[in-house]
Design a protein that fits this description.
Layout (H helix, E strand, L loop, with lengths): L2 H26 L6 H26 L23
Helix pairs in contact: 1-2
């Protein structure tokens, strides 16, 4: 795996996490709940749904949906032994 592919995979993971954290913060704004517990659960749920939705759309509808994961093209991994 090249350095670009490695960094692209990290970036495409970071973007959904960032969206999940921001969404969780906005979802609980103004509510009087245990902030840490709610934040963790909401961030995890939003992140999982966000990533799953846009990976599905990227694969089935158009590669352009990948921009919402940070890059429009998923990293290409080589088979073991390929150069």
């Amino acid at each position: 795996m090249s350095l670009y592919e490695y960094l692209a995979s990290l970036w495409r993971t970071f973007i959904p996490v960032l969206v999940g954290v921001v969404s969780a913060y906005l979802a609980k704004a103004g509510l009087d709940l245990d902030e840490q517990a709610v934040g963790l659960w909401l961030a995890g749920a939003f992140t999982t749904v966000y990533y799953g939705l846009f990976r599905f759309l990227e694969g089935k509808v158009s590669g352009q949906w990948g921009w919402l994961l940070g890059l429009a093209r998923p990293p290409q991994y080589k088979e073991k032994g390929e150069v």
